[in-house]
Every structure is written in structure tokens, then in C-alpha cells.
Design brief:
The complex is a heterodimer of chains A (452) and B (368). With 452 residues, chain A is an alpha+beta fold. Chain A has 2 domains: 5-46 and 239-450, MetI-like fold, CATH 1.10.3720; 71-223, Jelly Rolls. Helices cover 49% and strands 19% of the residues of chain A. Chain A has a 5-stranded antiparallel sheet. Chain A has a 4-stranded antiparallel sheet with strand order 1-9-4-7, with no helix packed on it. The model of chain A has no long low-confidence stretch (mean pLDDT 85). With 368 residues, chain B is an all-alpha fold. Classes of the chains: A alpha+beta (452), B mainly alpha (368).
């Protein structure tokens, strides 16, 4: 029953299924590391903060669907400006230039220019567009409130503003009736027919100030579309790619912690019972039977509702119901090992039971332990996902179950928002599969009987 | 065990076995009862303090209403303070009469609560009602229980049938294409959460291709003669999902048991004796693999009852699971306690049945 690490690795690397599992696991770990590097931990809290997602589109498709569509749907774009500052005489001008290559077959849903400046005086903001066909138009101009002292001002220019449409009608000659159309359908339209005009658009925002000082702070140009990012967005405008990425370390944490916790607990419990034998064994196994026969999910739900649903508590609850099976198996293994001569010998030499268990019995069970850890990870992940799906999970962490819960609350299946439902479930399955594969490969090493 | 041959010895042996089996069963029954009590105790312990707060609130509300509705009583008080102190007094009396002045963990109250639940007296639900309008928890549960049993027994029956057949085929051709596909499908299908597959099925077969209804609750009243048909039609989607997710791992399990049995010496002997391979597989090997298969059958039935909570919530199937989900979402404690008790009882009965069947099929268990 004893194996050296080298032997195990040799056996393991010859099992293709185990290597596949290992490969998936490595990818998942890389994703977790990427999540930690790309997205700071404090932003975890911003997942549920709607203010954080204002510039994102609602229920947008993933961008890559355009590859499969003949009619390209517009991407949602959040553009950063090319900023320049000029001062001639007593007039200072800040210019933000946003360039877009518009290659879609329908119009954007809207566009918004967001800006914040620090100024003194009464500056003027002017937004204009230059289109691929060379035509250009002022879209909107507005003056900021007068301020004697230097103040900070944030504002937005919306495509829904009435003046924008009037400016467009005055500057560009459209050969079709425009009254019923919103201004974004005009900005991006061919002048001869109301179809999207593809090409390079330049939006220019100028902020003038006479006799005053002006320092731009931040500005973005949001071109509203129906597709965003690698995985799309949900009804609350959240970028699902971020959610899926964050879910990876969380799922790994939950799965691995629960399985290591319950396997260790079960192992020590079982080995102790099996090694001690007699009344101790009997009493411990009866207790084991009681936990074993308890319906886990109803009790987990009651625990989550009454005690609390922080992620650490849930990990604890899952351990409570997870150790029993392993305790049973390791007990019977310990009973076999107990009869081996060297154990008898160390007993005769007067070694303490505790020492024998930790020095001679437990190490023998290690290969089995690793296999059971790998095998019990998927159940922990799916159970947590299930609890989260019922709305009983930790709401502060975007686990995959949590995302699916939100999807079901907003009726994603009924509304055909497949990009909201599919990825979390597939990720749960892939993560589970990785551990099942690894566990399966280890199991064949530990139990040579299975190899036949 | 005696090794003596002859009728007498055999009889003794048998008696001894039956005694052993009875003892074994008695031991299991006691454990099961212990589990039932422990689960009940844990449930009451977890919800007890909340339960008391809710009960006290409802007593206070009830008495306040009674007093204010009684005009002559109200007019007999001169100041509002007097009225208030009278009401407080009444509430206190009622609380004492109901035993609510003592915490829930005193032996009397705990004993009473356990006794009531054991005799299936779950009290009245706070918010939920049965379709007939009764708020008695027993009525609500009795209305929902048949639906859960119908769905999950049907699913388990179909799954085990397909599983045993497919598993036997896979076992007879180890490492063949069909064997590999079965194993692969088993591993992949069991990695997906059932409820997630349920959502996908609803998405595909209720909205993209509207073949089945999305909500599994029949829309016509229970008294309608077409109710049974409607129920079955609404059951189709959850049933298909459960079967789809379940049969793969079943086939895999049966295959593994059978492969183990097929390596035994007696099968080899039969093979060398020239008995038909199919006959060996279905007559002898399957019979010997029966005990673990039956155990798993009983256990998976009971296991699916627990999983029913999420599955039924997804499909909106009017069973125990959805009842549990509804009770949790409005924190209807009497219903939670009652449903936990019934779910646990069912779970334990099937575990006990599994033990019994295992003992019946595998004599080694009895001799322990």
C-alpha cells in the first residue's frame, strides 16, 4: 500500500485523463491569478454596486457573436479621449478627440459624453462629429454655470437631447424624413437612405474658457451598443466576464477548502475509531451514522438561513456534512493496518496510540487521501452553487451560483439571455470535471483493482 | 459458523442468521430513530428562538385586536395608559399560558414540541396555505408530497432501468466504444448541476422550441377531470431532465459492479463450462451485483428527495421541494420544521430499506 511520490507521479503522468484534469486545473489557477492581478480585491464589493456599472450596456450580447452574424450588431464602446490643451491670448481650449471605426449594420442605441473639469469663469462645451463621408456637424453646445472661484464640475451630454437633432438637420442634408428618428440614427446614417454608414468617425469635444483657467479632469465617450466584452453583460449592466473570472478563485477556494477540511476531519476521525476499536469505535461510528443519514441540503438551508451565509460559514457547514463517508472508509483501512506486524511491534515497544496513528497509520493512507480530496471537490462546488442559486449564498461574492441566481431572478431563460446562463454552469462543470479526472487517475493508482 | 454438514447444522445456521439479521435491523432502526430525533432537535434548536419571537408577536397582535374590537371593554377604561396596561397584562397571561415565558430549550417545551411533531401535529403555517385554503401544515404537506413522490420515483425508475441495461451492455464489452461513451457521458453528465441543466432545458424546450410548458404547475384546478393529464404533461420537462442527468452515472455504476463480478472465479468457471455469455451476464452476474445496485437505488431515491428542493424550485413543480423553498423565502417556520421532518423521515425510511435489502441479498452483512 505504500507509494513513493516519484512512483505516483510516474503512474499519474501515464494516465491521459489525469493529465487533462491537471491541465484544466492549471488553466483555472492561471485564471484565478489573472483575476487577482487584473482586478483588485476591494472591487469585489463593487459587483453589487449599480453605480459602478453605469457606463455599461444592459443585457448586451458577447462581442464575438458578430463573427457568426451577417448583420453585425453594434458593439458597446467606452472610449478614452486624446486630450490636448491650447491657449491663445486669453482663450484656453481643451479638446477631447474620440475616434471610432464603426463597422456595424445597425445604429448604436445612444451615446453619451461624460466629462469633468476644474474651472473658473463660464466655459462653453461643444460637441461635434466628423463622419467618414467628410460631412461634419456640431451636435450640441452648452455653457457651464459661472463660477468665480475654481470649482469642479461634472456633466454629461446625451444623444437624446433635442438640440442635437436640430443641429444635425441644419448641417447635414438627409434625403429621407427625419422627424421620427432619434439623433444617433442620424449621426451614423448614410445621407441618402437611413442605413448605418460604415467608416471612421471622429467625435470632438471642445471646452472653451475666456479669461479663466481650465483643467480637464476626466472624460469618456460611451457609444451605446448591444454587444459588450467577451461574455456580455447582465440586466444590471455588470460585465459577466468579470463575474466569471472572479468566480474562479472563489469556486476553487470553496471546493478545495471544503474537501481538504472534510477529508482531514474524516481521516483522523475514522483512523482514531478504527485504531481504538471496541466501545470507542462503536460510539464514534454510531455518531457517524447519525450525521451520515441526515438530509444535508435541507439542514444546510436552515443553517444558512438561521446562522448566517458568509462564505466562510458556508464552507464550515459543508465540512460538517462532508467528512462522514471518508471516516467510514478510513476506519476500515485503519483496522486492516492495525493488524500489521510493525504496528503491533511499536505497540509492544510502548509507543503512545496518538504517535502510532500519526506516524505509522496516517502516512499509509495519504495516497487514498489525495484521491478523496480530488473526488470530493466537485460536490462541494455544486452544493455551494446550489445554495447560492436559491439565494442563500454570500451575496457579497460573485460566485457562479450567485450569477445564476440573478439570472433566474431576472428571467434570463424566458428572455433568451443565454450568455447569462450558459457560462457559469459550464464553468461549474469544467471545474468539477478537472477534479473528477484527477481523482479518477489517482484512484486507479491507489486501487489497483480498478485497473483491470 | 459451523462447518458441520447435515440438516440440523443448516437449520441452526439459518436460525443464527435470522437472529443476526434481526439484531442488525433492530440496531439500524434504533440508529435511524436517533437520526430522526437529532435532525428534529437541530432544526428546532436552529429556528427555536426565531419561532418564539414570531409566536410572541402573533399573540400580542391577536390580543390587541380582541381588546380593541370589544367596544364596551375599551370604553370602560378612562385613559389610554390604563387600556395599554390591561392589554400588556393580557398578553403576559397568554404568554405564560402558552409557556412562551420560558425559553424554547427548557425540557418541557422541547419535549412538548418534539412530541407534537412526532405525532405529525405541525401546527399552522404563518403565511403559506394549501390549494384548498387550509393553513394546517399537515394539509399543505399532504397536498405536496404525492407530487414529489410521483416525479422522483418515476425518474428513479426510468433512470435505473436505462442504467442497468446500458451498464450491462457496457460491462459485457469492456473497453469497447459503447463502454467508453457510457463512461464518458457518465462523468460529464454528473458534473453539471441538475438545476442548471433544468434552466437550459426550460430555455430550449419551453422558449426556443415551445414544446413543453415552462412552469411545471398545472394551470387547471385539481378538481378538473383533466388534471391528471395536465400534471403528467407538465411533469415531462423535469422528468426528462432528471433522466438525462441521472442515467449516465447509473450505467457507469452498474458497469463497475458488473465488471467486478465478472472477474470472480465462478463466472470464469461458467464461461469455461460453455454457458452462453449473455445468460451469464443477465442471470448470474447481475444477480450477484444486485445488492450494491439496490442499495444505490434506495439511496439515490432518498438523495434526490433532498436535491428536489432546487430542482422543484427551478421547474416550479408543486412538490415538497418547492414548498420548502417557499417556506424558506418567507421564513414560515412551522412549515420548515414540518417539511424537514417529513423529508428526513422519507430519507431515513429509504436508507433503512436499503440496509434491509442489502442484508437480505448479502448474507455477510448479517453475520457481522
Amino acid at each position: 500500500m505504500s507509494f513513493s511520490t516519484k512512483e505516483i507521479w510516474k503512474e499519474f503522468s501515464s494516465s491521459s485523463i489525469g493529465l487533462v484534469g491537471m491541465g484544466i486545473l492549471v488553466i483555472l489557477f492561471c485564471m484565478s491569478i489573472a483575476a487577482f492581478i487584473a482586478i483588485p480585491a476591494e472591487t469585489f464589493k463593487e459587483w453589487n454596486d449599480p453605480a459602478n456599472w453605469l457606463t455599461y450596456p444592459k443585457s448586451a450580447l458577447p462581442v464575438w457573436v458578430n463573427y457568426f452574424l451577417s448583420h453585425k450588431i453594434p458593439e458597446h464602446m467606452i472610449l478614452k479621449p486624446q486630450e490636448s490643451y491650447q491657449k491663445s491670448g486669453n482663450v484656453s481650449v481643451v479638446t477631447d478627440v474620440f475616434a471610432v471605426d464603426y463597422e456595424y449594420d445597425s445604429f448604436p442605441s445612444d451615446f453619451v459624453y461624460q466629462y469633468s473639469v476644474r474651472y473658473a469663469g463660464a466655459p462653453l462645451v461643444q460637441l461635434s462629429v466628423t463622419r467618414p463621408d467628410g460631412l461634419s456637424s456640431i451636435l450640441m453646445s452648452t455653457s457651464l454655470p459661472y463660477s468665480y472661484n475654481e470649482t469642479m464640475f461634472s456633466g454629461m451630454l446625451f444623444s437624446t437631447d433635442d438640440s442635437m437633432k436640430k443641429n444635425l438637420e441644419n448641417n447635414i442634408l438627409f434625403s429621407f424624413p427625419v422627424t421620427a428618428l432619434p439623433s444617433q440614427d442620424l449621426v451614423f446614417s448614410d445621407p441618402d437612405q437611413n442605413k448605418a454608414l460604415k467608416g471612421h468617425y471622429i467625435f470632438k469635444a471642445k471646452i472653451y474658457d475666456v479669461d479663466g483657467s481650465i483643467t480637464p479632469d476626466q472624460s469618456t465617450f460611451v457609444l451605446g451598443g448591444k454587444a459588450y466584452g467577451l461574455m456580455g453583460t447582465d440586466e444590471l449592466r455588470r460585465d459577466l466576464a468579470v463575474g466569471i473570472l472572479w468566480g474562479t478563485p472563489l469556486a476553487l477556494f470553496i471546493g478545495i477548502t471544503v474537501s481538504i477540511g472534510s477529508v482531514m476531519l474524516g481521516l483522523v476521525y475514522g483512523v482514531f475509531a478504527g485504531f481504538k476499536g471496541k466501545t470507542t469505535d462503536e460510539a464514534m461510528m454510531r455518531f457517524n451514522d447519525i450525521i451520515y443519514a441526515m438530509p444535508a441540503l435541507p439542514l444546510l438551508i436552515i443553517l444558512a438561513v438561521t446562522i448566517g451565509n458568509s462564505i466562510f460559514l458556508i464552507v464550515g457547514f459543508l465540512v460538517i456534512f462532508g467528512w462522514v463517508g471518508i471516516a467510514k472508509v478510513s476506519r476500515s483501512m485503519a483496522m486492516q493496518i492495525k493488524t500489521l506486524q510493525y504496528i503491533e511491534a511499536s505497540k509492544l515497544m510502548g509507543q503512545k496510540d496518538f504517535k502510532i496513528i500519526f506516524k505509522h497509520v496516517l502516512p499509509q493512507l495519504l495516497p487514498y487521501t489525495f484521491a478523496s480530496i480530488a473526488i470530493s471537490v466537485p460536490a462541494a462546488i455544486t452544493t455551494e452553487a446550489g445554495l447560492s442559486f436559491l439565494g442563500l449564498g454570500d451575496p457579497t461574492f460573485p460566485t457562479w451560483g450567485q450569477i445564476l441566481h440573478d439570472a433566474s431572478v431576472y428571467g434570463a431563460a424566458e428572455r433568451g439571455l443565454w450568455w447569462w446562463i450558459l457560462p457559469p454552469g459550464i464553468m461549474i462543470a469544467i471545474t468539477g470535471l478537472a477534479f473528477v479526472f484527477i481523482g479518477h487517475a489517482m484512484d486507479t493508482i491507489v486501487n489497483p483493482k480498478l485497473r483491470r | 459458523m459451523s462447518i458441520r454438514r447435515g440438516g440440523n447444522g443448516k437449520l441452526q445456521n439459518r436460525n443464527c442468521n435470522v437472529m443476526g439479521f434481526k439484531k442488525y435491523l433492530a440496531k439500524r432502526a434504533i440508529t435511524m430513530f436517533g437520526v430522526l430525533m437529532a435532525t428534529l432537535l437541530i432544526t428546532i434548536a436552529l429556528v427555536g428562538s426565531n419561532m418564539d419571537a414570531i409566536l410572541k408577536q402573533s399573540v400580542a397582535l391577536e390580543i390587541r385586536q380582541q381588546v380593541t374590537n370589544n367596544k364596551s371593554l375599551v370604553s370602560s377604561f378612562k385613559t389610554p395608559d390604563q387600556l395599554n396596561s390591561y392589554i400588556q397584562n393580557q398578553i403576559k397571561q397568554r404568554v405564560v399560558a402558552l409557556g412562551l415565558d420560558q425559553p424554547w430549550y427548557t425540557p418541557q417545551r422541547l419535549g412538548l414540541a418534539m412530541y407534537k411533531i412526532l405525532t405529525l401535529d405541525f401546527g399552522h403555517a404563518k403565511f403559506l396555505t394549501s390549494d384548498t385554503g387550509s393553513s394546517d401544515v399537515k394539509d399543505i404537506i399532504l397536498e405536496r408530497l404525492p407530487n414529489t413522490i410521483l416525479l422522483f420515483t418515476t425518474a428513479t425508475a426510468i433512470v435505473s432501468l436505462i442504467g442497468i441495461l446500458l451498464g450491462a451492455i457496457a460491462a459485457s464489452k469492456v473497453n469497447s466504444k459503447i463502454d467508453k461513451i457510457t463512461s464518458g457521458f457518465a462523468i460529464v453528465s454528473s458534473s453539471f448541476p441538475v438545476w442548471w441543466v433544468g434552466i437550459i432545458m426550460i430555455f430550449l424546450f419551453a422558449f426556443v422550441y415551445p414544446i413543453f410548458p415552462a412552469r411545471a404547475t398545472p394551470t387547471i384546478p385539481m378538481t378538473d377531470p383533466g388534471y391528471a393529464v395536465s400534471l403528467l404533461y407538465h411533469m415531462a420537462l423535469p422528468l426528462i431532465t432528471l433522466v438525462l442527468i441521472g442515467f449516465g452515472s447509473w450505467a457507469y455504476l452498474v458497469r463497475n459492479f458488473l465488471v467486478g463480478v465478472l472477474q470472480e472465479d465462478f463466472i470464469m468457471a461458467k464461461k469455461t463450462a460453455g454457458i452462453d455469455k449473455k445468460k451469464i451476464l443477465y442471470r448470474h452476474a447481475l444477480k450477484n451485483a444486485a445488492p450494491p445496485i439496490i442499495t444505490v437505488l434506495a439511496l439515490s431515491l432518498s438523495g434526490s428527495l433532498g436535491g428536489a428542493i432546487i430542482t422543484e424550485a427551478v421547474f416550479d413543480w408543486p412538490g415538497m421541494g418547492r414548498l420548502y423553498y417557499e417556506a424558506i423565502s418567507v421564513l414560515d417556520l412551522p412549515v420548515i420544521i414540518g417539511a424537514t421532518y417529513v423529508l428526513t423521515a422519507f430519507f431515513l425510511v429509504s436508507v433503512f430499506l436499503a440496509d434491509m435489502l442489502y442484508g437480505y441479498f448479502d448474507p455477510r452483512v448479517r453475520r457481522q
